[in-house]
Please model this.
Amino acid sequence: MVLTGCTKCIKYMLFFFNFIFWLAGGVILGVALWLRHDSQTSNLLILQFEGQQAPGTFYVSVYILIAVGAVMMLVGFLGCYGAIQESQCLLGTFFFFLVILFACEVAAAMWGFMNKDTISKELTNFYDAAYIKAVDISGSPSKDSAIKVLDVFHTTLDCCGKGDDNALFKQVASTLCPRKSPEDFLKSQSCHSKLIELFSEKLYLIGLAALVVAVIMIFEMIFTMVLCCGIRNNPGVY
Model:
């Protein structure tokens, strides 16, 4: 028996939202892959200094996004197919996975909010550790390695130093930032500021994508419940 009236309208609205959900999954997967292979973050996060790898907390969130995007595409397809087939079984399975995804997204959002400054702080500390060795005038064994690490930061972020123009920094500025002239030192931003700016922009993008997906999920859960009730009340529809 074919659904009629408002229930039929909800069926096609659910299909439409599921299609948008499937597309959103593809967009999130694409954005996550872009964030993973973005030259700025990749150049910084592959660095090693004194046997320590640059902190990779940022990649944890990116890998989660990749998994979420892939699952969203699968679940979106399941929802589209369930709506068209008017199958309570498929719609019930879809609703179950949707609730799980929504709960995971809320948990990830809470974790991200509590750790929003962690990524930039970890990389700032990593930069500072190399900076201290690089400006060491006593000739530290790891000085050359530290200068190479700083060179990657300065080239990638177009910055120089920590923002403190003390006498020691001015002595070694030409070594730490060989591509900049003395006039450029006054204009360039500190690497601390650039790191905060870089990851704030990327986390804002992730947060915006998560908010849009959460709104779509809420509408889908409502439409799925209404459609399931409509199918149940129509004899001959399974």
